Amino acid sequence: MSESLPVGAKPFEFTGNAKEWFGIWIVNLLLSIVTLGIYSAWAKVRHRKYFYGNTYVEGRNFDYHATGKQILIGRLIIIGVYVLLNVLLLAVPPLGWLMLVVLIFAYPWLIVRGMLFNARMSSFSNVRFGFIGTTGRAFLVFLVYPILMTLTLFTTFPIWDRALKRFSVDNHKLGQATFKLDVNLSAFYMAFLWAIGFVVLVNVIGTLLLYFVFHDAVSPTPDGVQNLPVLILIQVLFFAAFLPAAFIYQALTRNAVYNNTTLQGGHRFASNVTAPKLLWIAVSNMVVVICTLFLMLPWAQVRIARYLADHTGLIPGGSLDDFVSQQQEAGGAFGDAYADLEGIDVGLPI
């Protein structure tokens, strides 16, 4: 895969540095511990503001506008619902199970509200993002598709993954300009097959090597019991193959999504991350972070943010200055006072 973005692409740029982010991160960590987790809501805001604010395209940066209070309220609501559910399950089981069923069906609505909140609290060059997804579509993507995927033994995982990404991209907008993802399902299945093929190949080669190197050890003993350490080694080999496979899939699908996403006005995006580089950064980050008892976590976070920014680009369909001015005039800037009131951060993994 080429290491350079397409001709005409304006690369994203991350200007943060590990030393500066470490100072913010350590304060966030200590205050979160001292306040028994309460300050973590403000820590999340500071985290996003730093990484958003240091990500630029053509000299214009992103920003995050939520407050710690808004994040905390969302978390308190989730905790309150969880506590109430457990109390009802213990005190009035039928009512508790009924509440659980209601919450399962309310999950898509919570997803939509969370995505709405995160979009409206984010901006690019003083133009707010927006989200127009519906609960009905979220119900299909987050409940129906996963059930079907399970029933098909995860062979339809690429179908669900594409639906998930299209739900997110197609329902976001920047000011009044909408995003559109038009990517073939074959790109997701190709990435899926590459990942599965890697797992199979590694395990076939690994098993053969183990067999020839430890032939006596893997041969059954008179009582039919095989060498336990070698069997454990085979199992470790099997699961270890999934880590590189995950990055193969992530790199290929990320490129497919960005390279097929457009923003109204003729603007396009580009991505050229590679699985080997992504894997190297992730594994080396993990080793360094663990060896330093997590003190190098800020360095690892800045490192991956810079790599992803460097390998992501915007291909403008015209003047970016004109585009931003048009969106601000259309009411997409900070003048949306109601944007701070609707939606709520519920801490869901979206």
From TrEMBL:
<dbReference type="InterPro" id="IPR010295">
    <property type="entry name" value="DUF898"/>
</dbReference>
<keyword id="KW-0808">Transferase</keyword>
<feature type="transmembrane region" description="Helical">
    <location>
        <begin position="278"/>
        <end position="297"/>
    </location>
</feature>
<keyword id="KW-0812">Transmembrane</keyword>
<keyword id="KW-0472">Membrane</keyword>
<feature type="transmembrane region" description="Helical">
    <location>
        <begin position="188"/>
        <end position="214"/>
    </location>
</feature>
<feature type="transmembrane region" description="Helical">
    <location>
        <begin position="226"/>
        <end position="249"/>
    </location>
</feature>
<keyword id="KW-0418">Kinase</keyword>
<feature type="transmembrane region" description="Helical">
    <location>
        <begin position="72"/>
        <end position="91"/>
    </location>
</feature>
<feature type="transmembrane region" description="Helical">
    <location>
        <begin position="97"/>
        <end position="117"/>
    </location>
</feature>
<dbReference type="GO" id="GO:0004798">
    <property type="term" value="F:dTMP kinase activity"/>
</dbReference>
<dbReference type="Pfam" id="PF05987">
    <property type="entry name" value="DUF898"/>
</dbReference>
<feature type="transmembrane region" description="Helical">
    <location>
        <begin position="138"/>
        <end position="160"/>
    </location>
</feature>
<keyword id="KW-1133">Transmembrane helix</keyword>
<feature type="transmembrane region" description="Helical">
    <location>
        <begin position="22"/>
        <end position="42"/>
    </location>
</feature>
<protein>
    <submittedName>
        <fullName>Thymidylate kinase</fullName>
        <ecNumber>2.7.4.9</ecNumber>
    </submittedName>
</protein>
